[in-house]
Design brief:
By secondary structure, the chain is of the alpha+beta class. The protein is built from 9 helices and 6 strands; from the N terminus they run αααββββααααββαα. β2 and β3 form a beta hairpin. α4 runs antiparallel to α7, α7 runs antiparallel to α8 and α8 runs antiparallel to α9. The radius of gyration is 39 Å and the shape is elongated. The protein starts with a helix and ends in a 20-residue tail after the last helix. The relative contact order is 0.16.
Length: 483
C-alpha cells in the first residue's frame, strides 16, 4: 500500500497531456553565426555600461532613475502581481481544508418543569429540559488533476511570472537609455548655444568694424546691413536651442520621478558632451538570446502558451475530485472527542457533449502557441536589427566626428585669415560672412557628430541588452506598499 502511494505522483505525471516545451536553438530561430556588418566579436560585461562614459553626472542620473522611475515602479508592481498569481496557481495542487465550530444552548419551556419553594416561602417553576451542545468539523476537498491540468496551469503561470520579470528588466533598460539620451541632448544644446554666442561675439566685432569702414568712406552701408542681418539670424537660433535644452533637462527630472525643474540648477554649468569608448564588443548574434530581456521574455511567453495547450487538452478527459469531512458533537467540552463521524466521497466527471467547445479551445490554444512562436522569432530578428543598425550608426558618427574635426580646424583658420583681410580691406564683407557662417556650421557639426556618436553608443549598449544582470532572473521584491 505504501509503495502504491509513493508511485501515485509518478503515475499521475505520466498522464499529463499536451506537448512538453522544448527550447529552440539559435539555428531554428534563424540566428546567423555572425553579423552582416563589422562588429567586435569579443563580448563585454554590459551590466553598468554608463560607467564607460566616465561622466559622474550621467552615472548619478542613471542610478537615480533605476531606483525611482515610475515606469520601473509600475513594472515591479506587475511583477509582484505575477508572483502572487503563481502562488495562487500552486495552491491548486494542494487540498483545500476548512474548519467549523459551533455552540448551542437550548431550553425546554413546554414540559419537564418542576416547582421549587424558596426560603421566603414563595414557589417558582424551573424547566428541567435543554442543555449545552458543542460541535467541531473539518471539510477537505482535493482536485486530483488526473491528466495534468493543474500541473500545466502551474507550469504556464511560472513561465508568465518569468516573462513578467524580463519585461520589468526591459523597462529598466529603456529608462536607462532614455536618461542617457536626454543627458547627451542637454549637453549638445549647451554646446550649440555656446557656439551661437561665440559667433555673436565675432559678429558684433564685424558689425563694429563695418561701421568704422563706412564712416571712413571705405565701403558702402551694405556691409553694415549684411552684418546686422547675419547677427540677427544667429541670435534667432538661441531661443530655439534654449527651448530644446529645457525640454531635455525637464525630461531628466521626470525620468527620476521628480519635478521637471529638479536638475536645472545642477546642469546649468556647461560640460562637454560625454564620449563613450571607441569600440564596443558586440559578441555574436546568438548572444542576444541570453542578453536581451525582451527576447528571454518572449521565449517564456512561448513556454506559457505551450503549457496552456495541455490545460485545454486535459478538459477532454475525466476529472477526479475527492472530498471528505469529520464531525463531532458533545454536550460538554470534555466529551468533544468521544463520538467522531466522517465521510469520504470521490467523484468522477466527464464531458459528454459540449458542441465542440472543448476541442475548439484546444485548437485556439495551439493557434496562440503558434502566434507566440512567431512573436518570439520576430523579437529575435528585431534585436539583431537593432544591434546592426546601432553598430553602423556608431561607425558613421565616429567617421563624421573625425571629418568635422578637420573641417572645424580649416574653417577656424579661414575665418581668422578672412577677418584679418577684411580689416585690411583686402576682401569684401560677403566673403567674411560666408567664412563666419562656415565656422559656426563646422562647430555645430562637430558637436552634433560627437552627440550622435554618444547616442549611437547608448543605442548599441541597449540593443545588446546592457543595463541588467543577465545571470540573475528578475524576481519580485518581498516588500509591499508604495515607494
Amino acid at each position: 500500500m505504501r509503495r502504491t502511494l509513493l508511485l501515485l505522483p509518478v503515475l499521475l505525471a505520466g498522464c499529463t497531456v499536451g506537448p512538453d516545451y522544448r527550447p529552440r536553438s539559435a539555428a531554428e530561430l534563424g540566428v546567423p553565426e555572425r553579423y552582416s556588418v563589422p562588429a567586435a566579436a569579443t563580448p563585454e560585461d554590459l551590466t553598468r555600461w554608463w560607467d564607460r562614459f566616465d561622466d559622474p553626472v550621467l552615472g548619478r542620473l542613471v542610478e537615480q532613475a533605476r531606483v525611482a522611475n515610475l515606469d520601473v515602479a509600475q513594472a515591479v508592481a506587475r511583477l509582484r502581481q505575477a508572483r502572487e498569481s503563481l502562488v495562487q496557481s500552486r495552491s491548486s495542487l494542494l487540498p483545500t481544508v476548512t474548519g467549523s465550530a459551533g455552540y448551542n444552548r437550548s431550553t425546554n419551556l413546554v414540559g419537564g418543569s418542576r416547582n421549587i419553594q424558596l426560603s421566603d416561602g414563595t414557589v417558582t417553576t424551573v424547566s428541567s429540559g435543554g442543555g449545552d451542545s458543542f460541535s467541531l468539523g473539518l471539510d477537505a476537498q482535493y482536485q486530483l488533476g488526473l491528466f495534468g491540468e493543474l500541473r500545466r496551469t502551474v507550469e504556464a503561470t511560472r513561465a508568465q511570472y518569468a516573462a513578467s520579470g524580463y519585461d520589468s528588466a526591459s523597462v529598466l533598460i529603456s529608462v536607462e537609455s532614455e536618461v542617457a539620451r536626454n543627458y547627451v541632448l542637454a549637453r549638445l544644446y549647451q554646446a550649440q548655444i555656446a557656439n551661437a554666442r561665440a559667433s555673436l561675439a565675432l559678429q558684433d566685432d564685424n558689425l563694429e568694424i563695418a561701421g568704422f569702414r563706412v564712416q571712413a568712406g571705405l565701403v558702402s552701408s551694405l556691409d553694415v546691413e549684411q552684418a546686422r542681418g547675419q547677427r540677427a539670424q544667429t541670435a534667432a537660433t538661441i531661443p530655439s536651442l534654449e527651448q530644446q535644452y529645457n525640454a531635455a533637462v525637464s525630461r531628466l527630472g521626470v525620468l527620476t520621478a521628480q519635478t521637471p525643474g529638479a536638475f536645472k540648477a545642477e546642469l546649468a554649468a556647461v560640460r562637454p558632451i560625454p564620449s563613450g569608448p571607441v569600440a564596443v564588443g558586440a559578441g555574436i548574434p546568438a548572444d542576444v538570446l541570453r542578453r536581451r530581456p525582451d527576447v528571454r521574455g518572449a521565449e517564456r511567453a512561448l513556454a506559457a502558451a505551450t503549457a496552456q495547450i495541455g490545460v485545454a487538452k486535459a478538459q477532454l478527459y475525466p476529472a477526479l475530485a475527492i472530498s471528505g469531512n469529520i464531525q463531532t458533537n458533545a454536550t460538554s467540552l470534555g466529551g468533544i472527542g468521544d463520538a467522531i463521524t466522517g465521510g469520504l466521497f470521490a467523484g468522477l466527471t466527464q464531458a459528454i457533449f459540449n458542441g465542440g467547445r472543448l476541442r475548439s479551445q484546444v485548437r485556439s490554444s495551439e493557434a496562440a502557441a503558434d502566434a507566440a512562436f512567431a512573436a518570439y522569432r520576430g523579437t529575435v530578428l528585431t534585436a539583431l536589427e537593432d544591434v546592426e543598425n546601432a553598430v553602423v550608426a556608431l561607425a558613421s558618427a565616429q567617421e563624421r566626428e573625425r571629418q568635422f574635426a578637420i573641417a572645424l580646424d580649416a574653417a577656424n583658420n579661414a575665418a581668422i585669415l578672412n577677418r584679418s583681410q577684411y580689416r585690411s580691406g583686402l576682401t569684401d564683407f560677403t566673403t567674411l560672412q560666408q567664412q563666419e557662417a562656415a565656422l559656426l556650421s563646422a562647430r555645430n557639426g562637430a558637436a552634433q557628430a560627437r552627440s550622435d556618436a554618444a547616442t549611437a553608443t547608448v543605442a548599441l549598449y541597449t540593443a545588446l541588452g546592457g543595463g541588467w544582470d543577465v545571470a540573475v532572473m528578475p524576481e519580485a521584491p518581498t516588500q509591499t506598499g508604495t515607494r
